[in-house]
TrEMBL record:
GO molecular function: thioredoxin-disulfide reductase (NADPH) activity
PANTHER family in the cross-refs: THIOREDOXIN REDUCTASE 1-RELATED-RELATED
Catalytic activity: [thioredoxin]-dithiol + NADP(+) = [thioredoxin]-disulfide + NADPH + H(+)
Gene3D superfamilies associated with the record: 3.40.50.2300, FAD/NAD(P)-binding domain
Protein name per its UniProtKB record: Thioredoxin reductase (NADPH)
Pfam family, one: Pyr_redox_2
Length: 551
């Protein structure tokens, strides 16, 4: 009875039978399959299941049920399960039809469905099952049950336990956290025995006691030491731009290494759902996209040096020499700077003291289950903030989105604006900023200020997620690399005339003031702060690398 539930609702018995056949043939061993013909029956089953403690993994519904749109029924599912995936069953003939497309586009922003699936064809319909697997994986990840999940056990939410969760997030490694005194924590400790906290239990059963960042990277096979070696291409930074450069560089035969002081994905790993990325109609999390790109680059031959910081860069006769924090040196024929940018610190001492104890920079995807039924505040007006608000709204009692700008449209994509405005549990406060707050050991309140009137308002808050500003990681670069007042790297035709004269030629579009050094993604002045744009710049940079190496 307690197996996770897959529910299918269709008032056409023949169509329902075909869906039931496919579900039972593949998923009956692990899930409870429940086909029903009316929304009333389905809602009763949902109520009984959740009251009895069973999980609801997936709900499928016909386009029309009892003369009403199936999206209306699917919208009711959230009353019983925050985590269940909800998909509209559409016929193959309706795929690409404007009316059907408009209905789906309207239903997603209103929070009624997660996506659609084309009805199964005669078996074997692997396309249908690919969609089912995607939905079930999305549910598993929301429940912290994704395959190869790492358990983190700590004595408190903050401190080193939080730092470890941040590291795992940067590594795009699925993980879940529990306190040592919780029911889940005691169950884990019963299996592994008394240990030094915080501890990690790896998917294979290995236990790591208070590991260093380097220990985590090494345990996952994610790092090498590039010191003393020469590469055709060194990519500094492993966000979307750096991963793209690694994929295209390695696939085109360049001996490539990626060096990053953190790990896979950069700031993109905090995106809980990127719905407008080409080729992912159901959306993709930033972490999943980063994992796929890393695996792709790795298979092509790119090598990765994580938890290692590049501290110096200089041009010499035999190439570009990069110094590491370990004292090692790496020589490159060409360099792509893809160090990205990080969220700006808020600078309120009372809130900085609660970092990891209710105050988080990014990380909304990994901390969602913690805020169930609570009041949450997100600060930011770009796409990442909108994605976080929508994701957290499925868990929190209320999400308040605090935006400095006068409108959401100033920096957020249109589809996200519609989805935010269509979610009843999200409140948007424009022209507002956070100026204070606090709590005893954990955040409990914030002080908001209206930027026009100066009026201040104290609000209750269990968690604060900060996604504001962009500070490029360029402080380590030498003066020879030209930057603007904000620290972003200047490239191509934006370089000054003195740089053009020193180069003796027109620089390539992504080339910096140092010959052979290019910049791509958020670190570059004038870049579009979107994942797709960063990926595009990373790939374009490799075309210029070939031309530089040919000189």
């Amino acid at each position: 009875m307690n197996a996770p539930l897959i529910l299918a609702v269709d008032d056409d018995p023949d169509l329902l039978a075909s869906v039931e056949r496919e579900l039972r043939s593949r998923y009956a061993a692990d899930y409870r399959i429940c086909p029903l013909s009316t929304p009333a029956e389905a809602l009763a089953v949902l109520e009984a299941s959740t009251t009895g403690g069973a999980d609801v993994a997936l709900v499928l519904a016909a386009e029309e049920l009892a003369g009403a749109p199936g999206t209306e029924f699917l919208g009711e599912v959230r009353r019983f399960s925050r985590d269940a995936q909800r998909a509209l069953l559409i016929s193959w003939e309706h795929l690409g039809e404007p009316v059907t497309g408009d209905a789906i586009f309207e239903a997603i922003p209103r929070g009624r469905i997660d996506h659609y699936v084309v009805r199964p064809a005669p078996p074997p319909d692997e396309q249908f099952h690919q969609a089912m697997s995607t939905f079930l994986l999305g549910w598993a990840e929301s429940r912290r049950r994704a395959p190869h999940t790492i358990d983190v056990v700590g004595e408190s939410w903050s401190g080193r336990a939080y730092e470890l969760r941040e590291v795992l997030g940067r590594c795009a490694m699925p993980h879940r956290f529990c306190l040592a005194e919780s029911r889940e924590g005691r169950a884990i400790l019963a299996d592994v025995g008394e240990r030094r906290f915080p501890l990690l239990v790896m998917p294979g059963g290995r236990v790591m006691e208070d590991p260093s960042d380097e220990d985590i990277a090494r345990s996952s096979g994610l790092t090498i030491d590039p010191s003393g070696e020469r590469f055709d291409l060194v990519v500094v930074g492993c966000g979307p731009a750096g991963l793209s450069a690694a994929v295209y560089g390695a696939s085109e035969g360049l001996r490539t290494v990626v060096i990053d002081s953190g790990s896979i994905g950069g700031q993109a790993t905090s995106s809980s759902s990127i719905r407008n990325y080409l080729g992912f109609p159901r959306g993709v999390t930033g972490a999943d996209l980063a994992r796929r790109a890393y695996q792709q680059a790795w298979v092509f031959g790119a090598r990765f040096a994580f938890m290692q910081q590049v501290t110096t860069l200089r041009r010499e006769d035999d190439g570009i020499v990069l110094g590491l924090h370990t004292g090692g040196l790496v020589v490159a024929g060409a360099v792509v700077l893809a160090t990205g940018a990080s969220y700006r610190r808020l600078g309120v001492p009372e809130l900085e003291a609660l970092h990891g104890a209710g105050v988080f920079y990014g990380a909304a995807a990994s901390e969602a289950s913690m805020v169930t039924g609570e009041e949450v505040v997100i600060v930011g007006g770009a796409n990442s903030a909108g994605q976080a608000a929508i994701h957290l709204a499925a868990y929190a009692k209320r999400v308040t989105l605090v935006v400095r700008a006068a409108t959401l449209e100033a920096a957020m994509s249109h589809y996200l604006v519609r989805q935010v405005e269509g979610t009843p549990t999200i409140e948007v406060r424009t022209g507002t900023e956070v100026v204070g707050g606090g709590g005893e050991g954990w955040l409990d309140h914030l002080v908001l200020r209206d930027r026009d009137t100066g009026e201040q308002d104290t609000v209750g808050a269990y968690a604060l997620f900060l996604m504001i500003g962009a500070q490029p990681h360029t402080g380590w670069l030498p003066d020879a690399v030209e930057r603007d007042d904000g620290g972003f790297v200047v490239t191509g035709s934006d370089l000054g005339d003195d740089v053009l004269r020193a180069l003796g030629r027109r620089p390539f579009a992504l080339e910096t003031s140092v010959p052979g050094v290019l910049a791509a993604g958020d670190v570059r002045r004038g870049s579009v702060k979107r994942v797709a744009s960063a990926v595009g710049e990373g790939s374009i940079a490799i075309q210029f690398v070939h031309r530089l190496l040919a000189v």
